[in-house]
């Protein structure tokens, strides 16, 4: 079986916009969600800025019962449930106690780590010999699959319900895993997405690795500089994104709106050899991943209108562009337009792949290519390969039919997905 | 503390966990937390913690296991208050 897979719903909780409308507007206008974080200053972090979705207290009541809100201390669950429930509703699917188990619907919702703040609470109680005071939700808020479990208490899916984890490729991997299952006819629709907790206990390790920018604490919006000569490290972020992937036939039968089609993709690893390591990708693996994704999608390199890269704003940005150029066998005027969301949101870690995929799909459904901020000083190597015209600094409004989206993660893991405009 | 007063406090504590609102209207000494109110058994530990906080007592594991009805809860709370 090789069924076509389309996207019929989306929801997002991003640092620069919560909800599709706000996020889409932020993309088009270049609104940054990166802010100074007093808590990181208090804790004496080098990097005291980050991107968090802003969720008003009142909004939580629309997504969680009073009982669920008691002792809820897992930001990943908050972001994930908001984006997942929004996506499901956007697709016109039932949410809440009246929804009946649907054996053809599933959830693949990834995370890197879940409920670190809840886990910290538990650690303090346990160390105080007070384990009995943990309460009943310590496990479900901190197990990795807690996010799919919380979501399913609202969506009632009866197909596979799971959580994947592959560092910063997590969200993109979830989409490809879901697409594959639907293609094979094992499910009709799957909520695919990912979330990432926010806060010092998630970001501390990266600060210790000295890979976060530390000279922008008083100028947060200028800190994340993908593809610039002055890129000084990635700004930590968090949030969640969710997409409803659906078998084309089922989507047409339901009369659902279709944002785009998942044409194909590829997932691989560079094996941590040949320049690949725990923290850097083997370029050969990246090139293969891009080539195989394009082959799987059945498109030609020249058909790609726009690339949404992984591009975190480090010294590796130029290497990524080189890999794209080699894999597509295109450069300069023939090279596609390219952008990185991380200039606006920071690096949302395990949520990056899903949030950035939503940005990619919106570009197709609304016909635009969002502009890159903070790269007025384009990296000379990138200028050499792609040319300045291909790295727009302002949003371009033009027809977008095919977008290639890549995510790479610690452990030398890669995922590339190809989205296309839906044509019957 | 009077039984009536304890039951009044218990009713307030239990309210957010209740899944059978009809049975909750008849909340009284004979009410069973799981059978009548259909409270998720995992939430019983949360109720015990809330009771400890409200009445400023500590409920040991054996007492916890035996607290399935309002009557049990009243008995345990009274005996712990006397010990305190």
Automatic annotation (TrEMBL), chain A:
**Quaternary structure per UniProt?**
Homodimer.
- InterPro entries given for it? Beta-ketoacyl_synthase (IPR000794), Ketoacyl_synth_C (IPR014031), Ketoacyl_synth_N (IPR014030), PKS_Beta-ketoAc_synthase_dom (IPR020841), Thiolase-like (IPR016039)
Which GO CC annotations does the UniProt entry carry? cytosol
PROSITE patterns per the UniProt record, alphabetical: KS3_2 (PS52004)
A GO molecular-function annotation: 3-oxoacyl-[acyl-carrier-protein] synthase activity
Q: Which domain of life is it from?
A: Bacteria
Gene3D superfamilies registered for this protein in UniProt: 3.40.47.10
Has the keyword Signal been applied to this entry? no
**Domain Ketosynthase family 3 (KS3) per the UniProt entry, residue ranges:** 2-421
What this protein catalyses is: a fatty acyl-[ACP] + malonyl-[ACP] + H(+) = a 3-oxoacyl-[ACP] + holo-[ACP] + CO2; (3Z)-decenoyl-[ACP] + malonyl-[ACP] + H(+) = 3-oxo-(5Z)-dodecenoyl-[ACP] + holo-[ACP] + CO2
Pfam families documented for this protein: ketoacyl-synt (PF00109), Ketoacyl-synt_C (PF02801)
| Protein name from the UniProt record | 3-oxoacyl-[acyl-carrier-protein] synthase 1
What Gene Ontology terms for biological process does this UniProt record contain? fatty acid biosynthetic process
Where is it localised? Cytoplasm
Q: What's the EC number here? A: 2.3.1.41
Q: Which UniProt keywords apply?
A: Acyltransferase, Cytoplasm, Transferase
Similarity annotation: Belongs to the thiolase-like superfamily. Beta-ketoacyl-ACP synthases family.
Automatic annotation (TrEMBL), chain B:
What InterPro entries does the annotation carry?
Answer: ACP-like_sf, PP-bd_ACP
Q: Which Gene3D superfamilies match?
A: ACP-like
What top-level branch of life does the organism fall under? Bacteria
Residue stretches making up the Carrier domain: 28-75
Record-given protein name: Acyl carrier protein
Species this protein is from:
Salinimicrobium sediminis
Source species taxonomy: Bacteria, Pseudomonadati, Bacteroidota, Flavobacteriia, Flavobacteriales
């Amino acid at each position: 079986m090789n069924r076509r897979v389309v996207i019929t719903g989306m929801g997002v909780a991003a640092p620069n916009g919560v909800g599709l409308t706000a996020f889409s507007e932020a993309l088009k206008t270049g609104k940054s969600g990166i802010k100074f974080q007093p808590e990181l200053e208090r804790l004496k972090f080098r990097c005291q800025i980050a991107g968090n979705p802003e969720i008003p207290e009142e909004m939580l009541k629309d997504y969680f019962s009073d009982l669920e809100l008691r002792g809820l201390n897992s930001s990943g669950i908050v972001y994930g449930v908001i984006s997942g429930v929004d996506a499901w509703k956007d697709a016109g699917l039932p949410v809440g106690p009246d929804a009946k188990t649907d054996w053809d619907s599933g959830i693949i919702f990834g995370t890197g780590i879940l409920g670190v703040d809840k886990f910290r609470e538990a650690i303090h109680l346990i160390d105080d010999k007070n384990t009995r005071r943990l309460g009943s939700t310590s496990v479900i808020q901190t197990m990795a699959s807690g996010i799919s479990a919380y979501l399913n208490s609202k969506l009632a899916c009866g197909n596979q319900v799971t959580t994947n984890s592959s560092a910063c490729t997590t969200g993109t991997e979830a989409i490809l895993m879901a697409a594959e299952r639907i293609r094979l006819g094992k499910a009709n629709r799957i909520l695919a997405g990912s979330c990432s907790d926010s806060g010092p206990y998630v970001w501390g390790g990266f600060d210790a690795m000295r890979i976060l920018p530390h000279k922008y604490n008083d100028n947060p919006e200028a800190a994340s500089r993908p593809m610039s000569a002055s890129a000084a490290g990635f700004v930590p972020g968090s949030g969640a994104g969710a997409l409803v992937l659906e078998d084309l036939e089922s989507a047409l039968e339901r009369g659902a709106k279709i944002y785009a089609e998942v044409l194909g993709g590829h997932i691989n690893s560079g094996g941590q050899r040949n320049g690949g390591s725990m923290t850097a990708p083997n370029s050969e693996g990246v090139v293969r991943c891009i080539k195989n994704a394009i082959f799987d999608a059945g498109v030609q390199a020249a058909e790609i209108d726009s690339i949404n890269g992984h591009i975190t704003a480090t010294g590796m940005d130029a290497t990524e562009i080189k890999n794209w150029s080699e894999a597509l066998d295109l450069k300069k005027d023939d090279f596609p337009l390219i952008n990185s969301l991380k200039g606006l949101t920071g690096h949302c870690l395990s949520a990056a792949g899903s949030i950035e995929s939503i940005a990619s799909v919106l570009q197709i459904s609304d016909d635009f290519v969002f502009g890159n901020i903070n790269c007025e000083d384009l990296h000379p190597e990138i200028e050499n390969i792609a040319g300045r015209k291909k790295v727009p600094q302002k949003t371009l409004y033009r027809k977008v039919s095919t977008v290639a989206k890549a995510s790479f993660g610690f452990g030398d893991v890669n995922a590339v997905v190809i989205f296309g405009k839906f044509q019957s | 503390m009077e039984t009536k007063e304890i039951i009044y406090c218990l009713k307030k504590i239990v309210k957010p966990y209740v899944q059978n609102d009809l049975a909750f209207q008849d909340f009284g000494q004979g009410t069973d937390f799981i059978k009548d109110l259909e409270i998720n058994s995992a939430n019983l530990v949360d109720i015990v913690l809330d009771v400890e906080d409200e009445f400023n007592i500590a409920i040991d594991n054996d007492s916890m296991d035996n607290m399935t009805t309002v009557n049990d809860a009243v008995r345990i709370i009274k005996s712990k208050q006397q010990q305190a």
